[in-house]
Amino acid sequence: METKFNRKIEVAHSQKKKSNLQFRKQKKVDAYNVKIENGNLFMQWGEKVSVFDSAQVLATADRLDASLFTKGYLMPKTAFKTTAAKYTLSLLITETKHSQSNEACALHN
């Protein structure tokens, strides 16, 4: 795009034509820079980009354990498995509810 405008500017004879082409070139360059930084209209309407962080997965598993414990799961165990293939990421979270033993029932009474 810039090379096209540069060729036109070199060929132009009058100073008015050169300044007009430079102005149009700068306007196009600014528009491209805005799209690079902010994205196009559909990208602006959409959600933010999701970034996978393994440390966040561990923290989420810990929070799920704490939440399950408060809901009555006495020994919650949250396991996760992540696999990355091309551009997709699958996250499998398993929650197991252990049956209450006699000792656990005795603690509640």
How would you summarize this macromolecular structure in one to three sentences?
The protein is α+β, with helices and mostly antiparallel strands and 109 residues long. Helices cover 58% and strands 15% of the residues. β1 (78-85) and β2 form a beta hairpin.
What does this protein look like?
There is one protein chain. This protein is an alpha+beta fold and about 110 residues long. It contains 5 helices and 2 strands; from the N terminus they run ααααββα. Strands 1-2 form a two-stranded antiparallel sheet. α1 runs antiparallel to α2 (about 15-40). The chain is rod-shaped, with a radius of gyration of 30 Å. It starts with a helix and ends with a helix. The model is unreliable at about 100-109 (pLDDT under 50).
Number of distinct beta strands: 2
How much of the sequence is in beta strands?
Answer: 5-15%
Mind telling me the C-alpha Rg? Answer: 30 Å
- What's the order of the H and E elements? HHHHEEH
Mean pLDDT: 77
Number of helices: 5
Shape descriptor reads rod-shaped
Low-confidence stretches: 101-109
How many independent structural domains? 2
* Class from helix and strand fractions: alpha+beta
Order of strands, main sheet, comes to 1-2
